[in-house]
Design brief:
This protein has 606 residues and is mostly helical. It folds into four domains: 69 residues, no CATH class; 54 residues; 140 residues, no CATH class; 270 residues, no CATH class. The protein contains 27 helices and three strands. It is globular, with a radius of gyration of 24 Å. The relative contact order is 0.10.
Length: 606
């Protein structure tokens, strides 16, 4: 309830004019506080993004004012320039706050905001087009389909109509994307050939599919009995949907498809961003953003090689204990296990249903086991769902979506069930630990539910060094809690950690050492024993998302190092629950802030 009241206060303040807040502060000769300023920035950002307001859920009650449920963001080059100017202005304002007059938490917020703004400003000034708006895993075409089918709610007649209103905006949305793509073309930046091949296939499928997911999900939702829509109203909706599909949706996807076909001959013959203008400098910035460290690409590459060696040796020890023999190639042995029928589900029509049920059982069991290691557990629940069929072929093995603040949507752990070999039973626990409990869901839900945090600390900044580092740490923690029931389960966790260590090697290999896509795939396959489908999907992901794959292991290493430091210095007074609170109770900060918080916990105990 406090979350709702706080958001209501800030939202209404913004709607009626934040100018009033400034006038009140000026009247009383008091400057606006740092927390109010950053909170204003968060709310302004939310109000500028209809998608963000829908995603949060709790703001839907203000739709009669904002009309956001009928809108989508249209973001073109002019908006990009305005954002850069706004970021520079925000940075100037933040610098005016005197650290000596700020509380400890305010100083943390200021440092986080400055770190974030500095990186974003440099990105926009030096590398405004060094990304791939159309790619096979997170392109705007896929994001839009997922947003409409998984996030936009249909709980009443107005929300059903708003769904169609949004579909009718796709021509403007994708038109602005084409504007950015043309500017990227002028800068001589194009993705590699395989990206074109995937995106062209995906767009063709979305245009020509008998059951486009946008249509299929809408029809299923409006026919749900609890909505009580009359047959006449449903017929009107379907008629409007048909018009939107014909006039807006299909032509919009066709616009993107035409661009990809036209520029296909210009595809980058190389795979790493080193081949882009100032590519090495761009990659160094991406590593700083995603790891929140100053590690060089060479540093990260060497950390990866060292961790691959250490983990491989432990896996060899377990394989020997299980009777598979000594001096094995761990990657080849794990590949054999991936194909061993004893670890695979039968390829039956109900396979996905069975796998989702088994994942759900693991999550429930782990939830109960993890409770003693934390001072509190989330109020929000988490569901397990299969990755949608329209994106499963190129998606990662699993991913997570946070819950809505108002409880209307739970957290969701999506498991990729496209290839039967992607789900050997011994690896399922590791993925569930990572994506659900005590990984992403526990961390994200606790953050959203933390009523002691300011709006900025809850919603204003995120880094995968923290979020993904925590999720990978959670896999190790789960083993320590006894949730790996067999040595095979522990092998699955180690394989997951090995996989993230290999990421350090192949990401820097691709973007810094100039490896080809095939060289990176060969290294990952031989080292991890992952299936061919997984390896292809992962390496292609790193190519279009440079640096992000390095955040997991760098974050995990930092959290583990800090835990060992706390244990060594606190001795018998060390409490794992206190350590987890020091890490989790302050939002999602950069790693250098996490280190300060843990050091403060140690100092207070001594």
């Amino acid at each position: 309830m406090k979350i709702l009241l706080k958001l209501t206060k800030y939202i209404l303040t913004t709607v009626v004019g934040i100018v009033g807040l400034y006038l009140v502060n000026l009247f009383f000769m008091k400057p606006i506080s740092l927390d109010h300023y950053l909170g204003k920035e968060v709310i302004s950002g939310m109000l500028d993004s209809p998608e963000a307001m829908t995603y949060l859920g709790i703001i839907d009650q203000f739709n009669f004012i904002t009309k956001h449920q009928s809108k989508l963001s249209v973001y073109g080059l002019e908006d990009q320039a305005e954002d850069l100017a706004d970021m520079k202005k925000s940075r100037s304002i933040l610098e005016r706050y005197n650290d000596s007059k700020l509380t400890k938490q305010q100083r943390i917020s200021k440092n986080v905001a400055l770190f974030d703004l500095d990186n974003k400003i440099r990105q926009e000034e030096e590398f405004p087009f060094h990304d791939y708006p159309l790619n096979q895993i997170g392109g705007i075409h896929l994001n839009m389909v997922q947003f409409m089918t998984d996030v936009h709610p249909i709980r009443n007649k107005n929300e059903a109509r708003a769904y169609i209103d949004r579909l009718n905006m796709l021509d403007d949305v994708f038109g602005s994307t084409i504007e950015s793509l043309n500017a990227q073309r002028d800068a001589g930046i194009f993705p590699p050939r395989f990206v074109f091949d995937h995106v062209i296939r995906q767009l063709n499928e979305l245009i020509n599919a008998d059951q486009n997911p946008i249509r299929d999900v809408f029809e299923r939702k409006i026919n749900e009995n609890e909505l009580g829509f009359s047959d006449k109203f449903k017929a009107e909706l379907i008629n409007d949907l048909n018009l939107a599909m014909e006039d807006s949706v299909n032509p919009s996807f066709q616009l993107l498809l035409d661009f990809m076909i036209e520029t296909l001959p210009m595809a980058d013959p190389n795979d790493g961003v080193w081949s882009l203008p100032n590519g090495d400098e761009f990659y160094a910035l991406r590593l700083k953003v995603y790891t929140t460290t100053d590690y060089s690409a060479e540093d990260i590459h060497n950390i990866g090689l060292s961790e691959v060696d250490r983990i491989s040796k432990r896996m060899q020890d377990i394989l020997s204990e299980l009777g598979y023999g000594d001096n094995l190639n761990v990657g080849e042995m794990m590949n054999q296990l991936n194909e061993d029928p004893q670890f695979l589900y039968a390829d039956t029509p109900d396979r996905k249903t069975i796998v989702i049920k088994d994942y759900s059982d693991i999550v429930e069991e782990t939830w109960m086991a993890a409770a003693d290691s934390f001072h509190r557990m989330p109020a929000s629940k988490v569901e397990v769902r299969a990755v949608p069929e329209y994106s499963e072929q190129n998606e990662a093995g699993g991913y997570y979506m946070s819950p809505a603040l108002d409880g209307s949507r739970p957290g969701v752990f999506y498991a990729n069930l496209y290839d039967i070999k992607q789900t050997p039973t011994y690896s399922m626990r590791a993925l569930a630990f990572h994506e659900a409990i005590p990984g992403h869901h526990l961390q994200n839900a606790l953050n959203l539910e933390n009523e002691d945090l300011t709006l900025y600390r809850r919603f204003g900044y995120y880094t995968s060094a923290f979020g993904e580092g925590w999720a990978l740490y959670s896999e190790r923690l789960s083993v320590e809690l006894g949730m790996a029931k067999t040595l095979f389960d522990e092998l699955g966790v180690l394989q997951s950690e090995l996989f993230r260590s290999v990421r350090l090697v192949v990401d820097t290999g691709l973007h810094y050492k100039r490896w080809t896509r095939e060289e990176a795939m060969d290294y990952m396959k031989k080292t991890t024993g992952m299936s061919d489908a997984e390896v292809v999907s992962e390496i292609e992901r790193y190519i279009v998302w440079p640096g992000q794959a390095c955040s997991y292991k760098v974050g995990m290493i930092k959290i583990l190092d800090l835990r060992e430091r706390a244990k060594d210095q606190m001795g018998d007074s060390f409490d794992i629950r206190d350590f987890h609170s020091a890490v989790l109770d302050h939002g999602e900060p950069p790693l250098f802030i996490v280190e300060e918080l843990v050091d403060e916990m140690i100092s207070d105990a001594n």
